Amino acid sequence: MRQLPEPARESLRLASVLHALGDPIRLELARRARETPESTCSALADGLDVPMSTLSNHWRIMREAGLISMTVDGRHRRIRLRAEDLRDRFPDLLDPILRLAEAEAPTSGTR
Amino acid sequence: MRQLPEPARESLRLASVLHALGDPIRLELARRARETPESTCSALADGLDVPMSTLSNHWRIMREAGLISMTVDGRHRRIRLRAEDLRDRFPDLLDPILRLAEAEAPTSGTR
């Protein structure tokens, strides 16, 4: 298992985290990643009508912003939301946002 | 005074609001807009090293996401953060984010 590069906790920037959450697909992926820790990219994207290349781009943006950790596990890529790092750096940010995302109508793959 | 088009309160989308806040310059403009209500675009952008065309684009993104109202007042454009609409639609979202933005080092115009 190999972990892909990600920013250290102390390098997380608020604007980058908000940008990573500022897309309906990424917001939904983050919500699902919290619900199902250590799940795979493909399982988390199940049912979302998004091309594979777009999805890869979404995961990269989320990883580079420090929202998720991504581990290569054979043919799979496993995702973990960096909830503790985010809570440490930005208290009262992630939980309210994911709660609000939950309350909004489920995304249908469109903005 | 003429108000530029903006989404109704009930049409605000969480992902769009997060996207509007997900840029260091826009985050700083939102913070300043809250501090100085009804200020002008140019006054709020004072000291930020950003080209005028980029700034116009930022204001448009913020307006279209429902983060700000923009009013044409003669040669000026006045900005008002839609704090009440946002609090109504997304409780516990805007205030923590602007507090965290305040706590981060002041932006120098770079991401």
From TrEMBL, chains A, B:
Any idea where the HTH arsR-type domain is?
6-101
Q: Which InterPro entries match?
A: ArsR-like_HTH, HTH_ArsR_DNA-bd_dom, HTH_MetalResp_TranReg, WH-like_DNA-bd_sf, WH_DNA-bd_sf
Q: Which UniProt keywords apply?
A: DNA-binding, Transcription, Transcription regulation
MF annotations from Gene Ontology: DNA binding; DNA-binding transcription factor activity
Highest taxon in the source lineage: Bacteria
Report the protein name in the record: DNA-binding transcriptional regulator, ArsR family
Which organism's genome codes for this protein? Goodfellowiella coeruleoviolacea
